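Data availability excerpt. The first of two example chains:
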Amino acid sequence: MPKTSVAHFYDELADDYHLIYSDWDASVRRQGDALDALIGQDRAAVLDCSCGIGTQAIGLALRGHRVTGTDLSPRAAARAAREAARRGLSLRTAAADMRRLPFPDGQFDTVVCADNSLPHLLTERDVRAALAEMRRVLRPAGLLLVSTRPYDDLVRERPASTPPQVHRIADCADGGERTVTFQLWHWHDDGEHYDLEHFQLLPEGGEWSVQVRRTTYWALGQDQLAGLAAEAGFVDPVWRMPQETGFFQPLLVARVGQ
């Protein structure tokens, strides 16, 4: 697998991804609650097509939904299944590309694509392909939930980095060791794409072990993404902000036309 691929990035991060949170279990519950409120029905058949290690998928399963998770990273998807099983939850997972979802038409009530996953697709062609697949596997009037970073603001500001996040390692014997995470962003000349370097500093034998993982994103604006969703057959696309939903990123909410 090429070291620059998105799958490689998340395969490498899968074992330590929870350490970017101050309390991953609390984030799982909080994000699941916020998405559940938007779904608005009991025991929905949900596809999380960028499930990672299960942050949103497990949160929704805790709320009683029937969740399937897929991710481009086999290691991340496998960990999501293990984490769900450890909590006594049923979560079927598989490694899959969101541009080629391995499901029949009309199988799900809701498709979730959260945590800035869609912007790993770097062209309109790829985003259209992914949205068309999400549309295909949804039932009539099915719900789409896509979250991204607030790119309209970020494109204007063009930040070079994120502030360091320092968290205690929850399973450390004395609770005293910490991890440090931050990102460097290298913007392309087009002003829309950027290369990201994800730095994770972990304590190891009294020293620091430094892991650096690299990937690329497209800072896809909200109007552009809403327009692509409409082209894919979704109706009434609207952006819901974190202060309204309680979710940590802006959410594009749309439905399949009946």
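And the second chain:
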Amino acid sequence: MTYLLSLLDKSPIETGLSAADALRATVKIATRAEELGYHRFWVAEHHNMSNLASSAPEALIAYLLARTSRIRVGSGGVMLQHYSAYKVAETFNLLASLAPGRVDLGVGKAPGGFPLSTRALQLAVDPSRKPDFASQLSDLNTYLAADPGYDGAHATPFPPTAPERFLLGASVESAELAAEKGWELVFAGHLNGDPDNLRKTFEVYERASGGKRPILALAAFAAESEEYARERVGKLRIVKLFLPNDQTVNVGSEEQAAEFARQAGVTDYRIEEKVPSVLHGTAKQIRNELDEFHRRYGVKEFVLDTPALSTADRLASIELLAAERLSLVA
């Protein structure tokens, strides 16, 4: 089976440790991932989260590029609703000028935080003039094209190789938009693993893009024994918050759900505690599952999100998976 394997890291803050410890762990995992032959290493964007340290992926990407030499590094992803497309293009063109051929720009629609941080990020934005997400992707295409003949603002510096562009989503609408704008689709299976939705989204993207297949993001944890993996993953929980406006949000605890509702200004809400969908077991068992996704859907690359476990567990997991030789590139 031939497919690439990449990683997504959220810089989780372990109990009793600090955000600085979490970021050091992310750097350690990234450098080890390069040694093991993983294809990409992406970092996330979460705002005002007490349990996650990566709020500015572009800053962390720059540091990771400086600490590595071969592995592609990128965002999984920039939460585009908060930012000017021009500024995002400038930032990633600069990164791609520092490390040509190694920079990925992944973008998403979610806020990546609670209502207060969203309002703080968008304080200077006039809602009546705010472009929609599709328009922002079009603007990014223009700025990243580095066309000297373009008569608008140039997002300099122009890198020798443009950043690769990825849209993170988990719906048919995301597939259609990614294909229309010429972006690679990353299906967020770690957030929405519904098999019927996955199949439909893959089919729509393949048809609309002229035969391309999405990258598939999944949560995965490998251990020496199935029992240990089950025990560690079995302790994980997510809380799904349902708000009166039909908005749903996944958070890490009942306390976070109550705080999100408070910041949103609502008291009428409900919650459901759920076990997150995580591939777990031995590396061989996970390989078999990835092989099946590859066989059934033609997946050519997986981005694996390691759950918020200890640094030792996360490192052991990526080492075990690499030892299974999951078609990694050196």
